[in-house]
Structure formats: structure tokens, C-alpha cells
Amino acid sequence: MIPYWLSRMQLLLGDEQVECLMNSHVLVAGLGGVGGICAEMIARAGVGKMTIVDGDVVDLSNGNRQIPALHSTAGKLKAEVMAERLLDINPALQLDVVAAYQEEHQMDALMARHAFSHAVDCIDTLSPKVAYMKAAVDRGIPIVSAMGAGGKTDPSKATIADISESHSCKLAKYVRKRLHEHHIHTGITVVYSPEEIDSERVIVTEKAFPKKSVIGTISYMPAIFGCMVASVVIRNLYQQAGIATEDVL
Predict the structure, then answer these.
(1) pLDDT value at 248 more than 60
(2) What pLDDT, on a 0 to 100 scale, did the predictor assign at position 60?
(3) Which of 28, 115, 224, 249 is deepest in the core (most CB within 10 A)?
């Protein structure tokens, strides 16, 4: 039975499509600026089962762009903050919380944790990001990945495309190169922007560990990326119910 709080989406999509979402299980790795809003949009679409993954804690520098980042949540695990929020959105949500950083060698086990309908990659460090993507491909799990939203300010340039079509994004370039080493060239949907980044807005520092640098960000760009990523997941899932809409990459 479709709950009342999903009645507006039921009106838009129809019973079969909403029920398809309610019966889906989505894995979201990375709950920062992109992943936090992405996870929320997926939950608000009525997806019935979710696994969320993030080992980081809220830092006040996250406050300009991340859903879990508030003064009241500083120092708390992002996964636990997001879990409380998602369950407040949908108390019936079946939620698996992995509040630990996932190393490269752990990605296969993560993908085997449940029978996932879709995977979402919002990881912002290269090696685990690529390992996560490869693990999804190896298991035949549909995946959408967020490329770099940092340093970007123009929302009109954000694009959904196959990884092979991405360009003018440094993170996408490095991801493609690593994936090619695993003989993966196509079949992964990405959200990216070719907008040029001002190098003066990037600081190389050990404080960014496990990343190598800190990049300037604005409030809306990670959220736009996250909503676009979520849109790919949601549309891919409800189209399995046979709805005739425009193609999703």
C-alpha cells in the first residue's frame, strides 16, 4: 500500500512506478555535499531500502554545502546524522548504516552486502572511488557516479553522460584512466561539469587527508550534482515498471 506522504509522487508517476521504488534497495557511498542531498532525494522518492556508507565526521567547514552539517552535529558521524534524518523522512525505511571508511579491498564485500537495485558513488577519493565502481560493474549493479563539483559555480554546465563522454573534468580524467586499467570504458553514468576551475581556489595541504588538496566550494553546486545523481537512480528504477518516458543514460 502506498503511504499518504507519497501521494504527490503517486499522482505524478502512478501506482506501479511508486511501488517499484518502494521495493528497491539503493546503496549510497559518500554522504558529503553531493551524497547527502542525493541520499535524501532517494529517500524522499520512497525507495524502501537503503544502505548508506560514510566514515567521516561533520566538520564546521562542511556547513556551507552538506546536508548533515549543522553546528549541532559538529563532530558526529555523517552516516549516523543522515540515518536519523532519513528515518524521520520515512520511518518505514529499511536502513543499513555503514559508518566506517571503506578501503579498496572492502568494496567487493560492500557490494555483496545486499541484493542492490542500484549503486551510487559520491566518494571523493580516487582509489576507493574506482574500486567501488569496478565492484559494481563486476556484479552487474547499475551505478551512477558524481565527478568533481568543487570549484564550480555554473549550474547550467552540469551534465549527465556516460563516463566515456565526460571531458574537461580532472577527476573524471583520472577516473577514466584507472577504469581503463580494468578494461572498463563505458557503461557507467556520471554527473560532471566541464567548467574550468581557477587553480588559485585549490590548496594542497596534509589537512585534507585522505585527499591531497582542499578546493573552494559554493552552497548549491554539490546539491545540484546530488539531485542530478538521484534523478538518474530514481528514473532508472521506476522505468523498470514499464513507464514510457525519455531515456536515462
Answers:
(1) no
(2) 96
(3) 28
